[in-house]
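Holo model, S-adenosylmethionine. Inputs:
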Amino acid sequence: MTTAETAPPPSMRLRELVFGAACAAALRAAARLGVADALGDGPMAVEDLAAAVKTEPQPLRRLLRALSCYGIFAEQQDGTFAHTDMSRLLREDDPHSLRYITLWCTEPWTWDAWPKLDEAVRTGRNVVEDLYGKEFFEYLNEDAPESAVVFNRAMTTSSMQSARDVAQFLDLLGSSSLADIGGGQGHVLASLLEKYPSVQGALLDLPRVVENADPRLRPGGALADRVRIVPGDCRVAVPVRADVYIIKNILEWDDDSTARTLRNVIEAGGPGARVVVIENLVDDTPSMRFSTAMDLLLLLNVGGAKHTRDSMVRRLTDAGLVIDDVRQVNPYLHAFDCTVPG
Ligand SMILES: C[S@@+](CC[C@H](N)C(=O)[O-])C[C@H]1O[C@@H](n2cnc3c(N)ncnc32)[C@H](O)[C@@H]1O
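Output:
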């Protein structure tokens, strides 16, 4: 029986770490094959699982054994495999599913980009433009439609999980309009509009993203008469006037894009507008391993970074915002509540 092991000696630990790609690839394979979805509540024989997910039994056993070493699936005494708390998160129907996050973090472009990390560290620049000849989100939406779908689903998963927390956290009493800048498919916006029935909303994101906005926001949806969907590039313009702007998990790209976005929001909102920037901070996180990995991936794709509290404060004040408050939204998100000065 294979179990999750603890604390091997340094020479073995390093050997394990350099094979990190094998673990990521095994997770990706399991997610793509739908192994977690096919495995029921009780243990299953590999032959039955293989028939369900249409693979050869022996390679599937090897895949499951590799994942079991990390506590993802568990091999039983009789050679069958059962779910663990982690493997259940690979199921698409799990309420806390990480299936699309798993796929997103291991998409084909990541395997092109990681080997160029030394180059990115040397130059401080993204490597995607050299690899694909265009900016990351352009590449994603124009040339990698399958990855774009995975990205939007992954963002939807994490937005839905954080939308409730943001809606609970943010007090919009006294405000009549709200714009979510780079709001993805609009789950955070929809949650807030449901909580505040007299508030009007606007969702700004790239055209191919808002095309698939949350059905509640689209024509015919329950919130449609209170929402304007604005396809656009927030670095070019923010053509939306609102009392409150939310900018969540956007200011992680290069500094020029951050400065341009903030300038456009400040111009659009005018004096007195409230700007709430919500981010994961690298200096106050439940997992430094996860946050620093995301930080490096952001360097590779958009030449960006996960921020510390100080580096976020610096960018917001440099843009001309007054920071009224910095508070924790949930264990992994912080809100910087700012005002555009008069
Ligand atoms: C990490 S996601 C965050 C989405 C959403 N705010 C959330 O927290 O769930 C980044 C979003 O920025 C959008 N985005 C990227 N470049 C953009 C641009 N130039 N203008 C507007 N939105 C952009 C992406 O399409 C994506 O929806």
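The two ends are 67 Å apart (CA to CA). The chain has two domains: 10-99, 110-339.
Archived with the compound record.
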